[in-house]
Amino acid sequence: MQIFKPYLDDRVKALIDDLSLLEKIDIRCLPQSVAIIMDGNGRWAKKRGLPRAIGHRNGAERLRSIIKLSSALGIKYLTLYTFSTENWKRSYGEVAFLMDLMVEYLSREIDELHQNNIRIVPIGDLSALPLPTRRELEAGRNLTSANSGLTVNIAVNYGGRQELVDAVRLLAEQVCAGELTVEQIDEKAISDRLYTAGQIDPDLLIRTSGELRLSNYLLYQSAYSELYFTDVLWPDFSADEYLKALADYGHRERRFGKESSVKRGD
Ligand code: FPP
Question: What is the CA(171)–ligand 1 centre distance, in A?
C-alpha cells in the first residue's frame, strides 16, 4: 500500500517526538471529525502524589498540541468533553477549579486560536455555568464565529441524553405551533436540533485512560463512529499518541451497515 503522509510545517513537526509515525498516516484516510473523552486527569495526578487540580491543569495543557495537530492535518471538527452534566456531583472545590480553568485557558489561548482561523463552539447547557465561565465561552464563540478552519466544540455541562431531551422538546413545540408535521420528524430533523446542528458526526471517538464507556457523550452523533480506547491517561496523550489513534483509524473498514468489501484473510 502506498502511504500519502501529510505535509506538516516545522512548527507542527516540533510537537511530534517520533516523526516516523507520520509514515503511518494516509492523508486520504484521516477522519474529518474527531471527538475525545479526555479521561484520567485525576489518576495521572494521584500516581505522582499530586492534587487532582494539577492533573486537570496538565490535561488542559495537552489541548494545545492536539488542537494544533488537528488543525494542521485539516480535520474539520474536534469535540472535547470538558465537563459533563454528571460532573456537578464532584466536590465543590473541583467543580470550581474546572470552571476557573476554563476561563483561564480560554482567556489565554483565544487570540492565538482566532489567528489560526479556529472556530470555538461551546455545546451544552451554558445557562447553569458560573457567569465568568459562561461569558468567556460566549466571547470565544462570538469572536471566532466567522472562522472557517477547524471547529473546536467545547462540550461543557454537556449530556447526550439532555441534548436529546432538548431536541425532542423543540420538535414538540414546533409541532404544537403548527410549524412542523409529525411526518416531517426524521433523522435529519432530530440532527438539526442537536447542539451540533449543521456539523458532521464524529468519524472517530477517542477515550483515554482505559475506561470503555461512552459516558453520555454524543449518543446520537456517535451511531457510526469508530471507537478508539487507550490506557494512556489524558495528560500523557501526546501528539504521538494522537497520531497512533489516527493511523489506527486509517485501517478501519467503515461499513455503515453494508457487507464487508475485505475478503477474510486479507
Ligand atoms: C476526566 O478526568 C476529566 C475531566 C472531567 C475534565 C476534563 C478537563 C480538561 C482536560 C481540562 C479543562 C478543559 C479546558 C477547555 C480548559 P478525571 O478527573 O475523571 O480523571 P480520573 O478518572 O482519573 O479521576
Answer: 33
Quote the strand ranges of the chain, DSSP E.
33-37, 77-84, 119-123, 151-158, 204-207, 226-229
Judge whether 142 counts as a catalytic residue. Answer: no
Torsion-angle region of residue 209: left (phi > 0), alpha (psi -120 to 50) or beta?
left
**Total residue count of the chain as it appears in this document:** 266
43 and 55 Cβ atoms separated by less than 8 Å: yes
Domains and CATH numbers, the chain: 33-159+203-250 (3.40.1180.10)
User: Side chain identity at 168, as an amino acid letter?
Assistant: V
pLDDT band at 225 (very low <50, low <70, confident <90, very high): very high
Kindly give the distance from the C-alpha atom of residue 42 to the centroid of ligand 1, in angstroms, as a whole number.
Answer: 7
User: Do 159 and 85 contact (CB within 8 A), yes or no?
Assistant: yes
d(CA 59, CA 79): 15
What are 69-107's pLDDT values in tens digits?
999 999 999 999 999 999 999 999 999 999 999 999 999
For 151, counting Cβ atoms within 10 Å of its Cβ (0-12 exposed, 13-18 middle, 19+ buried), the class is buried
Give the active site residue among 87, 116, 147, 216.
Answer: 87
